[in-house]
Automatic annotation (TrEMBL):
Keywords: Coiled coil. The keyword Amino-acid biosynthesis does not apply. This is MADF domain-containing protein. Residues 11-109 form the MADF domain. InterPro entries: MADF-dom. SMART domains: MADF (SM00595). Residues 56-83 form a coiled coil. It comes from the Eukaryota. It comes from Parnassius mnemosyne.
């Protein structure tokens, strides 16, 4: 069953990859509800091969779980390279689908927050609070 499950998950990931309207925030179709709904429908159909009653919520949970696992592994790799580890000591991801998520590239990098208040307004707010 494990081989069949992995093969289905591999196809699931490939469908996900082929639908940037779901994962690429800057894609022009990211805000197209119909396009996104159609993409999710493909993923629901594929996930139903493993979970017969799968819904969109189940697809979202599955994607989040897979991406979380990849992020965790990526963090371990980054930490091992930062610690000046020799080539043999650099962490090697054990997750079988780790490389399949390379297409996400920088999609998981947190954006720096920016204030929508200009500097003069921020100064005024600071002084009002500290009176």
């Amino acid at each position: 069953m494990s081989r069949k499950r992995n093969a289905i998950l591999e196809e699931f990931i490939e469908i996900y990859k082929s639908e940037p309207c779901i994962w690429r925030l800057k894609d022009k179709e990211y805000h197209d509800r119909n396009k996104r709904a159609a993409a999710y429908e493909k993923l629901i159909i594929k996930l139903r091969e493993l979970e017969p009653n799968a819904t969109k919520e189940d697809v979202v949970k599955k994607i989040n779980a897979l991406r979380s696992n990849v992020r965790r592994e990526k963090r371990k790799v980054e930490e091992s390279t930062k610690s000046d580890a020799s080539g043999d000591e650099i962490y090697k991801p054990s997750l079988w689908y780790y490389d399949m998520f390379e297409f996400l590239g920088d999609q998981d990098i947190p954006r720096t927050s920016q204030s929508n208040i200009d500097e003069a307004d921020q100064t005024e707010v600071f002084f009002r609070r500290n009176r």
